[in-house]
Amino acid sequence: MKRPHIGAILLGLIPFVAICFTVSLWDRIYPTVFGLPFNFFWLIAWLVLTPLCMLGAYRLEERSPNAHREEGGER
């Protein structure tokens, strides 16, 4: 099994850190963004941004060497 690319790991950690460890920074009712309290807006924004980060991680893994090994090769 191939080790994951460090960039892919970091891209995967960005949404996790943004949602879990920044609560004290955005836990406010005011201001509002698009009529939503900022904390709801923040969470909804990361629901959209998380797949983009995962797409970037996937593309990094696809470009890495030995990504397309023949089946039946080394494991």
How would you describe what is shown here?
It is a single chain. With 75 residues, the protein is mostly helical. The chain is elongated. It has one domain (6-63). The chain has helices at 6-20, 23-26, 38-63; strands spanning 32-33, 36-37. A two-stranded antiparallel ribbon has the order 1-2. It has three helices and two strands.
Task: List strands and helices in order, with pairings.
Blueprint: H1 6-20, H2 23-26, E1 32-33, E2 36-37, H3 38-63
Antiparallel strand pairs: 1-2
What are its keywords?
elongated; 75 residues; 60% helix; mainly alpha; single chain
How is this structure best summarized?
The chain has 75 residues and is mainly alpha-helical.
Mean pLDDT: 83
* Span between termini: 6 Å
Spatial order of the strands forming the largest sheet: 1-2
Give helix and strand order, one letter per element, not per position.
HHEEH
List the uncertain runs. Answer: none
Radius of gyration: 18 Å
- Count structural domains: 1
- Fraction of helical residues: 55-70%
DSSP summary: helix tally: 3
Strand content: 5-15%
The main β sheet shows up as:
2 strands, antiparallel
- Number of extended strands: 2
Principal-axes shape call? elongated
Helix/strand-derived category reads mainly alpha
